[in-house]
Amino acid sequence: MKIENIIQKGLKTALAELYDFTPAESQIQIQNTRKDLEGDVTVVVFPFLRFSKKSPEQTGDEIGTYLVKNIEFVNSFNVIKGFLNLEIESSFWIDSLLEAYSNKNFGTDSQPEVSETVMVEYSSPNTNKPLHLGHIRNNLLGYSISEILKATGKKVIKTNIVNDRGIHICKSMYAWQKWGNGRTPENTGMKGDHLVGEFYVEFDKHYKAEVAELIEKGLSKEEAENQAPSILAARELLVKWEAKEEETMQLWKTMNSWVYEGFDVTYKTLGVDFDKIYYESETYLVGKEEVLRGLKEGLFYKKEDGSVWADLTAEKLDQKILLRSDGTSVYMTQDIGTAKMRYEDYSIDKMVYVVGNEQNYHFQVLAILLDKLGFKWGKDLYHFSYGMVELPSGKMKSREGTVVDADDLVENMVNVARDVANELGKLDSLSESDAEDTYRMIALGALKYFILKVDPKKNMLFNPEESIDFNGNTGPFIQYTYARIQSVLRKAADKNITVNSDINVDEISGKEKDLLKRVSLFPSVVAEAADNYSPAVIANYCYELVKEYNQFYHDHYIISESNEETRNFRLVLSSTVASVIKKGMNLLGIEMPERM
DSSP class of residue 470? Predict the structure, then answer.
């Protein structure tokens, strides 16, 4: 049992006996004791003063005396103002270590009686461009959140919705027809998503030139943007697509197949996957049916031009278009259809959308519309809203071709990892193939950790060079510490030193206790990360654990320790720390090299 639970239980009994009151959960505040004070666990006394009717010091002294007398592991206490600091016997921390050492599922085996089914949507790419840095943050967050939820016993379905229709893909299709000259991934040697993305940029270049020319002829900016030949042609393609015109459909299928093959390569490189992929080209029809049902039932209304709208002024929002005047649907229509299909396909208890914060309004509206349409789960959807990711050079824009391509970024990261590792001589002992594999692990570990350690709700600045540092709060620093521990354990094995769970030590140092306490927190950290949908909680825990281990490693002998019992204890401690590091980093989708 966790020390917090033991203290909480004892505290309730103490307060009942001493002051005849039972505290609410919110009144009990238990935290780690500050490092500059004596103690392991601190209880905040202030909430109890109105019941004890005594000073903070007197109240803390009475509670502390009771806990020392009635809880086996509470060794002593001190009171500083309104804070009761409890010292826990070393035997408790050693027992906690043995639990972590012997339980392969330590920290990730919480199985509730009724397992909740959660669907997590992430990635959601458009088929008119390759995945970029923004997609990387989305994919890494979605995958990590899924893994963390699974670690707390939930049944998780990882899903993706591919935006494979609409005006954006029609722009790329028109550009290929107009300026493609028969180029394909096969005859150009390009990844399909990169090739299609080039045509999207090509469209925008010509479109802007046409708009500028029309403005010079006297049209307003809005008129020029709506009457430019390129946008008219793209809209015509969209109408043909929705009418299932054969030639248009064939071009659409061909270009999308190029993109899917490219996406699959990038997903594999990033180490993310999906249990189910939905396609907007299939779900929008279901959404369209629901919108027309809503129109028939008076939930929505039609304007004179034939477009269908939802009036959300009663909800203190505005008017929302659901079908355009030409009958084509919008993103909202597709999301209504996708939501319905998902709940028909799976018995979902919770739906989590991992989508950037620029779509906050969209999901607010989606929840309201689903509720209006009579879906009882509509208002229960959860939008995991995260901040944007930028580079030192500034914001990225797909249509202008200024995005940072995901494939190029990963390749660049591997090159940086190789240069840094070679400069420091970190991998000199590895074979060429093992070194290349390790460069890849370091590069992706650096990328993933740098992105996931940041509070998801915040915008962030990604600096590739800063992320690959073998010191500080970085993925490579954590990977290197893990590899260091593995080296220690290999050396012990080479010396035929047996490591076993029969620990017999009477005294442990302050650094050892700090490390034991940090290890014991892992299950609580995983639970907190799941409750808050925050991989950053795991990332920063791993960093703190690694810092704690390196201080211990610096101050204590391990293999060369002359006392066999102490040596065995430190090897068990090292092995357990390595196991927890690996579990934590795996929840972030990060591989751990055995040698560095």
Answer: S
Q: How far is residue 201 from each of residues 173, 206, 287, measured CA to CA in Å?
A: 12, 9, 30
pTM over 0.85? The answer is yes
- Domain 467-587 in CATH 1.10.730.10? The answer is yes
Tokens of 278: 């939905």
CATH of domain 3-88: 3.30.1360.70
Q: What beta strand segments (E) does 127-225 contain?
A: 155-162
Angle, alpha carbons 190-412-271 (nearest 5°): 75
Strands of 30-32's sheet in order across: 30-32, 41-44, 83-88, 74-80
Q: Would you tell me how many other CB atoms lie within 10 Å of the CB of residue 15? A: 22
Domain edges within the chain: 3-88, 122-276+340-389, 467-587
Indicate the Cα dihedral angle 32, 34, 37, 39, nearest 10°: 10
Cα dist. 167→127, 172, 247, 292, 359 in Å? 11, 9, 17, 22, 19
Are 131 and 406 in contact by the 8 Å Cβ rule? The answer is: yes
How far is residue 345 from each of residues 93, 119, 129, 415, 451, measured CA to CA in Å?
Answer: 47, 11, 29, 43, 33
Residues near 502 by beta carbon (within 8 Å), at least 6 away in sequence: 568
Q: Which one, of 465, 357, 136, 476, lies nearest residue 144 by Cα?
A: 136
Question: Could you read off the pLDDT tens digit of each residue along the chain, which spans 596 residues?
Answer: 688 889 999 999 999 999 999 888 888 999 989 988 999 999 999 999 999 999 999 999 999 999 999 999 999 999 998 999 999 999 999 999 999 999 988 998 656 556 789 999 999 999 998 998 889 999 999 999 999 999 999 999 999 999 998 889 999 999 999 999 999 999 999 999 999 999 999 999 999 999 999 999 999 999 999 999 999 999 999 999 989 999 999 999 999 999 999 999 999 999 999 999 999 999 999 999 999 999 999 999 999 999 999 999 999 999 999 999 988 888 899 999 999 999 999 989 999 999 999 999 999 999 999 999 999 888 889 999 999 887 776 443 444 445 678 998 899 889 988 888 888 777 878 888 888 999 999 999 999 999 999 999 999 888 877 888 888 899 999 999 999 999 999 999 999 998 888 888 878 999 999 999 999 999 999 999 999 999 999 999 999 999 999 999 999 999 999 999 999 999 999 999 999 999 999 999 999 999 88
What is the fold of 122-276+340-389? Rossmann fold (3.40.50)
Question: Closest by alpha carbon to 7, among 33, 30, 40, 24?
Answer: 30
Q: How far apart are CA 209 and CA 206, in angstroms?
A: 5
**Can you say how many angstroms the Cα of residue 489 is from the centroid of all Cα atoms in its chain?**
32
- If you count them, how many residues does the chain have? 596
| Rounded Cα distance, 280 and 333, in Å | 10
Token readout for 3 is 């020390």
* 3-state SS track over 256-296: HHHHHHHHHHHHHHHCCCCCEEEEHHHHHHHHHHHHHHHHH
Q: Do 467-587 and 3-88 have the same topology in CATH?
A: no
